[in-house]
Specification:
alpha+beta, 4-stranded mixed sheet, elongated
C-alpha cells in the first residue's frame, strides 16, 4: 500500500483588467504568475519542492504586485504559460497518492478557475 503524500500549493497572482478580459474574451480576474508547492510525507516532513514562474496570457504585473512579490514582468517574459506549468506540476507529483491543500482559499479558487 502506498503512503499518501500531502501537497500544499501557494500562488502569486497578477490582475487581469476589465479591458484585458474584454479584449481577450476571458473571464479570469487574475492569473497565477508563480506556482509553488511543497510535498510532505505522512510525518509532515518536506520531501519535495516545486516552484515555477508563469507567463501571464492576459494580465500584467503591476508595480503593486512587483513591490509585494518581487516578481516583475521582465522575469516572466521567457517563462511557460499556465498549462505548461500545470503539466510540469502533474509530472512532479508523479503517480503518488496525494492530498492537496492550498495556502488560502483564494489559491484553491484560482487554480480551479485556471484549470477550467
Amino acid at each position: 500500500m502506498k503512503n499518501t503524500k500531502n501537497v500544499v500549493v501557494d500562488f502569486e497572482f497578477c490582475k487581469v483588467s476589465k479591458k484585458q478580459r474584454s479584449m481577450a474574451g476571458t473571464q479570469l480576474h487574475q492569473e497565477i504568475i508563480e506556482f509553488g508547492a511543497v510535498m510532505l510525507d505522512e510525518h509532515m516532513n518536506v520531501i519535495g519542492r516545486f516552484q515555477k514562474f508563469v507567463k501571464p496570457q492576459y494580465g500584467t504585473v503591476s508595480s503593486f504586485i512587483s513591490n509585494l512579490t518581487g516578481i516583475t514582468s521582465e522575469m516572466l517574459e521567457n517563462e511557460m504559460h499556465f498549462q505548461e506549468v500545470m503539466a510540469a506540476f502533474v509530472r512532479w507529483i508523479g503517480d503518488s497518492d496525494f492530498q492537496m491543500a492550498s495556502w488560502s482559499m483564494s489559491d484553491y479558487r484560482q487554480l480551479s478557475e485556471e484549470i477550467l
